[in-house]
From TrEMBL:
Species annotation: Schistocephalus solidus (Tapeworm)
Family: Belongs to the TBCB family.
Any matching Pfam family: Ubiquitin_2
Principal subcellular localization: cytoplasm
Keyword Calcium: no
Keywords recorded for this protein, A-Z: Chaperone, Cytoplasm
Recorded name of the encoding gene: TBCB
InterPro entries on file: CAP-Gly_dom_sf, CAP-Gly_domain, TBCB_Ubl, Ubiquitin-like_dom, Ubiquitin-like_domsf
Single Gene Ontology BP annotation: post-chaperonin tubulin folding pathway
Domain CAP-Gly, residue spans: 182-224
Protein name listed in UniProt: Tubulin-specific chaperone B
Compartments reported by the entry: Cytoplasm
A single GO cellular-component term on record: nucleus
GO molecular function: alpha-tubulin binding; microtubule plus-end binding
Length: 244
């Protein structure tokens, strides 16, 4: 399986199509962030449909923690982005674009153009370019620092190699060993890397091509500190199972 796939990207909000290469180990969440520039859709409201090279429906992409490879994305496939909060063709109307045009641009070339969604968002201070009110910005920064401090305090009570139990709301309780503690490149904040006793995880200790620890595929996961409890949690034996 190739490490990269070439995909056709299009959007209901912005008629232009582009063709770009993406790594198969890129998570869907990170993939959505990259698509903002070429689709005009925000990650929080973006809906993605995967079409094969014959334009037949394959699947809707919904799990932000799974990689493109795990989601069945293949070379030559088409990803169609939509956003229920944005009118179809919205950016074409604003920019006067011909939606029948297809193009291939590097990210640097795209960033330099003045007739793109990115340029329009910069001019109108939309999305990540929005200028917060000074008071709102101060409160947001205070909240971020408070969360960061609380997470660091929890990490200080943990050590690499500790046994732990992970309790995430609406998910089964899982046990494992702590393999990583600290910040990551895939998302801000503090994270606990856990190697589960069973293949109940989402990765092999790496995300977006960056390795944080070693484990078998599906045994690794990154969890917020608040959901991790350190203690004497031995591996569950057959006598501990509620169902066989």
């Amino acid at each position: 399986m190739p490490s990269y796939v070439s995909l056709v990207i299009s959007s209901t909000a912005f008629g232009l199509k582009s063709e770009k290469k993406y790594p198969l180990d890129l998570t869907l969440g990170k993939f959505k962030e990259k698509l903002v520039l070429v689709t005009g859709c925000e990650p929080s409201t973006m809906k993605l449909e995967l079409l094969d090279d014959s334009e037949r429906h394959v699947a809707f992409l919904v799990d932000d923690f799974k990689t493109l490879g795990e989601l069945g994305v293949k070379d030559g496939y088409h990803v169609l982005a939509s956003d229920p909060t944005v009118e179809a063709g919205h950016y074409d109307k604003l920019l006067g674009q011909d939606s029948s045009v297809e193009f291939k641009l590097t990210e640097e070339e795209y960033a330099q153009r003045e007739d793109t969604v990115l340029a329009w968002k910069k001019r109108n201070k939309i999305g990540k370019f929005k200028e917060l009110d000074p008071e709102e910005a101060r409160k947001a920064e205070e909240k971020r620092l408070a969360v960061e401090a609380a997470e660091k305090a929890l990490l200080e009570k943990m050590n690499i190699g500790d046994r732990c139990e992970v309790r995430i709301p609406q998910q089964p309780t899982k046990r494992g060993e702590i393999m990583f503690l600290g910040p990551t490149k895939f998302k801000e904040g503090q994270w606990v890397g856990v190697k589960y006793d069973e293949p109940l995880g989402r990765n092999d200790g790496s995300i977006d091509g960056v390795r944080y620890f070693e484990c078998l595929p599906k045994y690794g996961a990154f969890v917020k500190p608040a959901y991790v409890e350190v203690g004497d949690f031995p591996e569950l034996g057959i006598d501990d199972l509620d169902e066989i």
